[in-house]
Amino acid sequence: MRIAMIGTGYVGLVSGVCFSEFGVNVVCVDTDSDKIDRLNQGEVPIYEPGLENLMANNVASGRLSFTTDLREAVNGAEAVFIAVGTPSRRGDGHADLSFVYGVAREIAAAMNDYTVIVTKSTVPVGTGDEIERIVLEERPGAEFDVVSNPEFLREGSAINDFMRPNRVVIGSGSQRANEVMRQLYRPLFLIETPIVFTSRPTAELIKYASNTFLATKITFINEIADLCENVGADVQEVAKGIGLDQRIGGKFLHAGPGYGGSCFPKDTLALVRTAQSVGSPLKIVETVVEINETRKAKMAEKIIAACDGSVDGKTIAVLGLTFKPNTDDMRDAPSLQIVPALRAAGATVRAYDPQGMEEAKTMIDGVEWCDDAYDTMVDADALTIITEWNQFRALDFERVMSLMKEPVLVDLRNIYNPGEMLAVGFRYTGVGRATPSTLEQE
């Protein structure tokens, strides 16, 4: 089979590479000629563990290539995937579908024989209908079908998520299109992956509903964390206790500074706007969006409180800037609110992230960028962990103590044990956990 993947961002590149690993001939297309040149030289523009080697192997096999020529890529392709960005639209929070619709027009002009046009981009209900209308307007009488095939890739583990997914969702009203999709995903049928064939609107909504439910789960445990701090309970034990209930499950029950990244913030907001536009408001989701925004500011307040109520003239060491570990993605990362708030309060911020530094430098001003974790701690009045990279989970605390001016640790990811930190001499603050004074009384 031969397919075209339009867009070489996170979703498009990972999907294109993984389809080629399935044995499909894939041409990835992007309008950014510099990015295509880098890809053709074997350089991966995003950080995703394992992607560089997988891409190189499939380019060498002849199954994977990169081009700026959309017409050439679409010509002869059995399926064309739209994997371009759908950012939040300025002013109203709806998904900006201008890139999706622009690509649809280009595909219509380029396709010849029967073609399955597949939306991989995260799009609101009704987008597939509009793509179909656009293509018919551009090419009356053309043979094609529009399919919704949402992605469920987690940054940092995207290759495994594509190769061994929990499920594949295919939204289509055409048996002919469904057969093409069955052939594309044949390796997953062979390992009995659940494949959900449904209508196009249902598939479009499944994606948004999935992300919104997970964002709600995160927000719920963050609210419980605040309650734990006020009643002397431990949110990690609460999360374990409720997560053992098989109806709930333990995933996404980790208290922290709030969700970020490329999906949850824009998808929750887009679903809110879609629901409002059809007169069916989602009050729970509206509250989730509001709570998550205010939570990030509260984390800066937590750090300031741990520094005796003021960081003016003090140095704060910050470990982790990306929205999660194993990615270089800074989109809507909590650090984007926390670090500027500390700076505004008069702090000097020394920061380090294993992969996100270059992107962070374009988004945060006035920060002293450091070469490694320990470099941030020199003469620091407090150390805060914003992103839970593995290399931050086993710090040498004798060395940390020798470098810092004051032994203050604000652990926004709860990766350390409060009792152990107190034992080595730290004033420890976590999220939703018993206070140091409570531990000392025990």
Summarize the structure.
The chain folds into 2 domains: 2-198, 3-Layer(aba) Sandwich (Rossmann fold); 226-441, NAD(P)-binding Rossmann-like Domain (Rossmann fold), CATH 3.40.50.720. 44% of the residues lie in helices and 13% in strands. It has helices at 10-21, 33-40, 51-61, 70-74, 98-110, 127-138, 158-163, 175-184, 186-190, 200-231, 235-243, 264-277, 283-306, 335-344, 357-361, 397-403, 418-423, 436-441, and strands spanning 2-6, 25-29, 64-67, 79-82, 115-119, 144-148, 168-171, 195-198, 315-319, 348-352, 368-369, 382-385, 408-411, 427-429.
Architecture blueprint of SSEs:
Elements: E1 2-6, H1 10-21, E2 25-29, H2 33-40, H3 51-61, E3 64-67, H4 70-74, E4 79-82, H5 98-110, E5 115-119, H6 127-138, E6 144-148, H7 158-163, E7 168-171, H8 175-184, H9 186-190, E8 195-198, H10 200-231, H11 235-243, H12 264-277, H13 283-306, E9 315-319, H14 335-344, E10 348-352, H15 357-361, E11 368-369, E12 382-385, H16 397-403, E13 408-411, H17 418-423, E14 427-429, H18 436-441
Parallel strand pairs: 1-2, 1-4, 2-3, 4-5, 5-6, 7-8, 9-10, 9-12, 10-11, 12-13, 13-14
Helix pairs in contact: 1-3, 5-6, 10-12, 10-13, 12-13, 13-14
CATH architecture of the largest domain: 3-Layer(aba) Sandwich
Number of domains: 2
| CATH fold group of the largest domain | Rossmann fold
SS elements, strand count:
14
Continuous helix count: 18
Question: What features would you describe in this structure?
Answer:
It is a single chain. This protein is α/β, with parallel strands linked by helices. It has two domains: 197 residues, NAD(P)-binding Rossmann-like Domain (Rossmann fold), CATH 3.40.50; 216 residues, Rossmann fold (3-Layer(aba) Sandwich), CATH 3.40.50.720. Strand 1, helix 1 and strand 2 form a beta-alpha-beta unit. The protein starts with a strand and ends with a helix.
